[in-house]
Amino acid sequence: MAEKILIIDDDIDTLKLVGLMLERQGYEISVASNGTIGLQKTSSIVPDLILLDVMMPDMDGYEVTKRLRADPSISSIPIIMFTAKTMVDDKVAGFEAGVDDYLTKPTHPAELTAHVKAVLARTAHARSEPSERARSIAFVGARGGLGTSTIALNVSIALQHQGHDVLLAELSPGRGTLALDLHIAEPVGLSHLLSRSLKDIHLRSVDSEIIAHKTGLRLLLSSFYPREAELEQAVPQMEAIVANLTAMCTTVVLDMGSGIRPHTQALLSNCDRVVLVVEPIYPATMIGQTLVEELETRGIGRHKVSLALITRERTSLQVPWQQVSSDLGLELAGIISPAPEQAHQASQSGTPLIVLHPAGLVTDQIHKLADHLSTFLLPVRGRTRL
Q: Do the strands 49-52 and 211-212 form a parallel or antiparallel pair, or are they unpaired?
């Protein structure tokens, strides 16, 4: 049965345009031209999702939201506030009233569809029977500049292609790169959350900072503004954010950046798997060995760590992978070959490499790395793990 969406908006053009876009996606659409009618229709049809305008003549969207949340019979219906108001204070007011997501007019059909699908998927998951906790995988670079974030991104998409419900969090405030690679403006989600008090970090506030990418992957991104790097000292907030993320999906991928950070021990201790990204040349291998030893002193044993080798350059100076694996005492999870042209094209187009070059050698290697990591994750429904 098609999912039902109720659109509440006094703008007839919006009702027609948005209704038509969503009908083409297979949803059953109902409309209401003001808040009073919207409340009545919500009670009578009980939609799966409400798209709600803010500025309406009889009752604004904030008041409609408060009344919906006050009625136990319909309080759990997800609400996307759909409006031309773009000020941060307006968005905050919407979230405080109880909305689940926020879109500004005009919006691209693909963006609208992505948000609708994401909210409906989260709601369906929350209403399902309690399941095992989400599994988490953390990527840590032996040093900066190895492409750790790029690997984390592409592996996340590969895992999603396998059927896992993946959420990727880039935990490097002030050092983020994924937004630049994906052409996403103002990647301040993590910074906003880390600036909050602990009591203000909850499912609704975390969810409000999640970006739904066109690939279907959900992202919590770090900014690239150097002044925000000091936010990595907010370790309790970082832990609270990740704890909430595990309630929003089945697989959390954490891009931890390079080296040891203030939040490293707190987060890695609770991860199901840690992937150490190393380049097989000296001194990177020595740095990797030192990092592994430091993790051990912090209670994160080698049995929990897998090795990913990034061979960025074809050179006779490379240390054989068998020796690197032996020296570090780590199981080899995968080897990624150099592909500078493909990586450049991916960055220029804002499209992840495995999506832009689905038949390439590196794409195959990334999928093999994802296959290795999937053995530590929850089985995908409908599949059995061999």
A: unpaired
Residues 221, 184: contact at Cβ < 8 Å? yes
138 - beta bridge partners?
Answer: 254, 274
Distance of alpha carbon 60 from alpha carbon 52, whole angstroms: 9
Residue predicted with more confidence, 68 or 73:
68
Cβ contacts of 102 within 8 Å, gap of 6 or more: 80, 81, 83, 91, 94, 95, 208
Residue entry with tokens 């297979």: 26
Do residues 273 and 373 lie in contact, with contact meaning Cβ atoms separated by under 8 Å? yes
> With bands split at pLDDT 50, 70 and 90, how would you rate the model's confidence at 385?
very low
User: What is the tally of structural domains in the chain?
Assistant: 2
Residues spanned by the domain of 91: 4-127
The structure's pTM equals 0.67
**Helix runs in 220-263, H state only:** 235-245
| CATH number where 139 lies | 3.40.50.300
